[in-house]
Fold each of these.
Amino acid sequence: MSVTGESRFPNLTLENSVLLVIDVINSCAHPDYEDAERNIHFNKIRQMVPALSAFITSYRRLGGRVILTTTVPWREPFLAENINDLYRESEEARYWSQDESGRAELFYEIPTDAATVFAKNSYDAFTNEELVATLERINARYIIVAGVFGDGCVMASICGGFSKGYRFVIAEDLIETTDDEDRQALQRFLKLRTWPLMYGATVTAREILAALSPAKVE
């Protein structure tokens, strides 16, 4: 079904798009993985998750395809070497996990039925060659993106996917980061300025569903 009217993404269809949800997992959302000493809190992420869950369900009901990313265990043996180098060289940037339970990588309160799941060992989801091969196989040209962290893995994935030629529709109200004021300010600027000018339509979840729905979304 093609989008009609004065859409900001008139060529978007359910057939040529996929919803990519970045890292809505325990280590990025659950209270047990907050770190008060480093001012890492996830309240704003948890406030966003119910709306994201509803969007995933609605998108699936329309017939849309969903890809979820989680991470490998965020520990030195599993990560891309440039991340390990960064963490070795900068204590401020260092973010190795101490969790070996496997719980950190589980999805946090979002529906996973019928979704395709990929684990990544870097910030950018498009470094996973299997994910890129899947997008090519299903002829996805538009990536509808949501998830966390807006100023981290979401930003890296938008840049990585755009460099591979994909078009982006960015669900601005379904992307969040930690509660830190500086990170929130950076994310606001990305949504206001950087993403819409450089990477794709930055719109609400409601606008996306309205564009893809055969009937008006109330």
Amino acid sequence: MWLGALERRLLERILAPPPKLLFRDRQLERALELIEDRTSFVVYGPVGTGKTTLALTTARGLEGVVYTSCASARTYSALRSKLLKRATYYVVDDYTMAVREPRLKELVRSLEPKAIIVYPPVEAYEELEGLKKIEMQPYTLEELEDICRERAARLALAVDDEDVKAAARAGFEHGGNARVALIVLAERTAANLQSYAAWRS
């Protein structure tokens, strides 16, 4: 019972956006330029490549940002109720998961300025035509190891280098997916804590 709660807390901490987004300097610089110019853009790439973190990192410190995830608000009416607020910037996450219909397409076209996060192929979304694009590539194995190491050190996780490498390998085997790597890191941390608790009792 306690392990389940511990795993949930660990996962929340480990998956929380980091103070610095590693290996995305070029994309971050571009996104900051676009936000400064109040230009709308699309962030696209496979799952676990830092799309949401990039959008939230660039919007950090801005007043009046409206963030909406289509994973929880998928229909036109649900999204409309969240997106009708005036904003300095709209961030629409997981747009791939929205139930696309003409009214939703018009709503998304009308938002200015905005950052829309989608999985490829981005060309499938005609309502996003003409927007600037930022591509997020899958992470390499070495990058995933460094991401896991940074998270382990910053959060003082109960893991060793073998745990870090195993988590990175899992993410790499899932297409360079940092989210998978960090989930495995959380699982290994919880397992190590459980082993330690069993040893002490």
Amino acid sequence: MGRLKKNKKKNYKLRSTYLVKILAGVDEVGRGSLIGPVYAAAVILNKSINKKILKDSKSLSKNKREELYFYIKRNSVWAIGQASLIEIEKMNILHASLLAMKRAIIKLKAKPSLVLIDGNKLPNLKNYNLKYVIKGDQKIPSISAASILAKVSRDRFIMKLSKQFNDYGWDTNSGYGTKEHLSAIRKFGITKYHRKTFSPIFNFK
């Protein structure tokens, strides 16, 4: 019995050492939006970072996301990937989201030993150890950090667009299908940044 316990303990240590070697978290944002590209971020946190303050981006205020955005960038290895509107229209939003994740992972300056991805799908990426985590943005600090970087990065891009198309309220709705946004589409029509394969956009053609 004593020998069996010793072997189990040794195996656990080996697995633990491998898992914490270089861990990256990945998340995307913008899948449900009616406009623009989908963004993803990949993050490898420094050991010194305060993981307790990292939360799912959806649970944070805009000001808090902005504050953590700079904090994460200073205390991690990170990369942003995206898939364009054309790619979304061509391959559908799921595959475009996975492509954005793949691009973010590849852009990391350090190759992770393990990549934890929010959701239940994995990008097609060889020579990487990938695992998905359902609701990972609420459970894994590095995925929470990735959700914040992806959200702030995309929101900044959408804010620039909103200055050109200020009738649609993109500065507050980020292109999602709010009553304000849908009402503006009925009144002013669709733009070149709208995802024309999305419901209800294709009904406004």
